[in-house]
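Listing S7. Sequence submitted for prediction.
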Amino acid sequence: MTEKRFHREEYPLDILGEFGLTEEMILDLPDFVHDKIEMGGLSPLLPISIKQPFGFTHCYARFCLVETSYGVEALFLPKLKDVDISQFNEHDQKLLLTGKAIVADIVEDDETVKAFVQIDKDTNSVVYTPTQIIGRNLQTICSEFDLSGDDLQGFWTGGLVTVEIPDSKGTPTMVTIGVNLLSERGVEIVPGDAHRWEKVVRQPIPEYSFGNDGCWINRNGVLSYVPDNEFTQDIIDAMERNAHANGIPVEELRESEQRPYHQESYQSEETRQLTR
């Protein structure tokens, strides 16, 4: 359960390309995003282009990889409606806004039910499932990893549990377990400590994430990709700041990155999004 289910060379780039996600765009995503995708998790919210008879419709969606009889394919999860967080008390709101999955009361068809609840910050939507479903999964996890009742109770308030298990060679290996309703089973098991779990599961895309062929830009949770030959001055400035922070001389960077850039400042892709 802790090993990668997919590898980058297996990515269905043809399918992703049909939705406007080029090979360069996908491979330039940060490594921690690939870690999540390769373990069967969801990508961040990405800009999607869908060809229509009248042109292209632009929207945003996340994707995950699935194994089928035809090979590895991609499933897409579109952006959902905004969440009304006011239905939760102040304590629960603070936990939810950090990305934690907690147990709370949900009103559904005039009935109040106990459910694991989590905010998907990318889609601004509330996802939830009755406690019995995730509870059953957690019971299985507790048996598999010999967790205590206190460990199980901690999951109800967004807690994480780190344990050691033997790998395929019998060497003790650390893994961390936590509830993540955005994962396939609702429970995420990540190799490493709690810090790495948080990084893989909850870490947002930085404002500028540079790859080999371009840069992913995060504007308030809205991602767009800019190829290197279309870098604007603000992207060049960010690249130089990153180089300075990593001890790379700016002069060396400029010599190796002799590329034209557009003078106009970058505009958020959100302003160009079509809604149909």
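Caption to Listing S7: primary sequence and predicted structure tokens for the chain studied. The longest strand covers residues 55-68. The first helix runs from residue 13 to 18.
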